[in-house]
Amino acid sequence: MQKSATFSTLPVTRPPVHTDSITAMAVVRPGMVITGSRDKSLALNNVDTGECVTRWIGHNAEVTKVAYGNTVGNHFVLSGSRDQTVKLWQFHSREAQKSYEGHSLVVTGLAVTHITFSTCCNIIAQSSEDKEVKLWDPRNLDMVAQLPRKNHIQLHCEFIDDKMLASTSNGFNGDGCEISIWDLRTRKLLRELRGHEGSVPCVAGLTQQVTLKKLLMSVSVDRTIRIWNIEDGVCVWDETVPTDADLLQCVSFNDGQ
């Protein structure tokens, strides 16, 4: 079997597919990724060949987040932008299938900070700089729920399972640095995980094949990584990362390893 160029130990330079910086990326399958850019466009890229397979144009400002989803063979792309809209795109069309202005505050330019899709729930969650998390129906991009507004910008949202959603806040010195756990059925706040001293850009659920407990891993600009017991809100492990970098941006957990 031919090995994909994406697994090369050395970086491979490809021709640019955007005219400005790339701000977001989502994996479709090995060798195929979707990118969002400050040039206001999205692109489906063949990483192995460098080919731009499809380009979607429709936003009026920088694309801040992209997400890929697949329901019963229906492939779709979601994009969030500083034009305050969320757009739904199909692979077979270059026109947006749906556009929703779900974050229309007086202050313009508020960015969508994260978009995630749950296959088991068949629902989209999206966080924004307007301090809210919204839930969407992927079939038509109708908004199905708006979670209570927090006091700080919501940086990230992640489905824990088919019953709970986590969102993270942009705070400082321990204020607004909590992780919020939401009940997807009641749309109410279950509990807050507190302990970080800086903003929490990302969280990831640990698969229950590893432990009988529901655990969540978080990373913060305070340079710590923590693991939480979601059921009681207790931090069961923490580690300070030895780095001089100012910011830790993401964390992931791969198949129990």
From TrEMBL:
Pfam families found in the cross-reference section: WD40
Gene3D superfamilies with a match to the protein in the record: YVTN repeat-like/Quinoprotein amine dehydrogenase (2.130.10.10)
InterPro entries to which the protein is assigned, alphabetical: WD40/YVTN_repeat-like_dom_sf, WD40_PAC1, WD40_repeat_CS, WD40_repeat_dom_sf, WD40_rpt, WDR31
Coiled-coil blocks: none
Native source species: Haemonchus contortus
Keyword tags: Repeat, WD repeat
Entry-linked PROSITE patterns: WD_REPEATS_1 (PS00678), WD_REPEATS_2 (PS50082), WD_REPEATS_REGION (PS50294)
PANTHER family: SPERMATID WD-REPEAT PROTEIN, WD REPEAT-CONTAINING PROTEIN 31
The name this protein goes by in its record: WD40 repeat domain containing protein
Domain of life, source organism: Eukaryota
WD repeats: 56-99, 112-146, 193-233
